[in-house]
Amino acid sequence: MILAIDVGNTSITVGIFSGEDLVHSFRVDTDRTKSPDDYGIIFFGNINDRDISPSSFTGAIISCVVTDMQEGMAKLIEKYFGHEPIVVGPETRTGMQILIYNPEELGADRIANAVAAYHRFGGSVIVVDLGTATTFDCISEKGEYLGGAIVPGIELSTVALYHGTSKLPKVDPQKPEVVVGKDTIECIQSGLFHGYASMIDGLCTKLKKEMGSSPEVVMTGGFADAVFDECSSVNRVDKDLALHGLRLLYELNSQIFC
């Protein structure tokens, strides 16, 4: 079994693979005040509750975009599961040409998404990841990482609107019943929800045109299920895309690093 951990700014997703099969996954909030032992106990307990023995794992891999948590996450895997994990970074073999100015700047989560998406669809693809930031990653027919776009995520925009104004409330960024809001909360929810859906469709149209192909568009991330039905440009949702990408990266790199 392989342990795959994707550490994001808002949440940490943990996946357990038996071969190619994701047999269990869970998500916990990212909390920088927690120690590695705090997380170790949470991970160990959740996995133990599924009657999975830590000795069942043959390896582990981590992607982490929270710099000050990366070392602690690696150490907790060694302590609680007995393996030094592969940490996705600039030296990680991806099997994919990274055609951007500074490949070392590409986030580990975006690498995992891109690798998984190309492996699954075998052609050009755009990955839309609705996390703390909303990211767009473009992969060519030949499996080249072309680049993409980044905008603030829905939750981040909600917080920024609340802190940047004197009278607007902080609202739950959920789908409103109407597009034409009748009060302040409905107006904000409409702007956030329908505005993001329209932005995704508009930006995907421009990305497709510049790519010169007809890519599949796959959506992932915490808000994917909520927004998917409103986006005419998106073909499917895969909430576990990054975890599957980590499994593929583990297979590509385990002989080198382990």
Tell me about this structure.
- This protein has a 5-stranded mixed beta sheet with strand order 3-2-1-4-5, with helices on both faces. Strands 8-7-6-9-10 form a 5-stranded mixed beta sheet, with helices on both faces.
- The protein has helices spanning about 35-50, 65-80, 110-120, 155-165, 185-210, 225-230, 240-255; strands at about 1-5, 10-20, 20-30, 60-65, 85, 125-130, 135-140, 145-150, 215-220, 235.
- The radius of gyration is 19 Å and the shape is globular.
- The protein starts with a strand and ends with a helix.
- It contains 7 helices and 10 strands.
- α1 packs across α2 and α3 packs across α7 (about 240-255).
- With about 260 residues, it is α/β, with parallel strands linked by helices.
- It folds into 2 domains: about 1-85, ATPase, nucleotide binding domain (Nucleotidyltransferase, domain 5, 2-Layer Sandwich); about 105-240, Nucleotidyltransferase, domain 5, CATH 3.30.420.
- Helices cover about 40% and strands about 25% of the residues.
- The model has no long low-confidence stretch (mean pLDDT about 95).
- The relative contact order is 0.16.
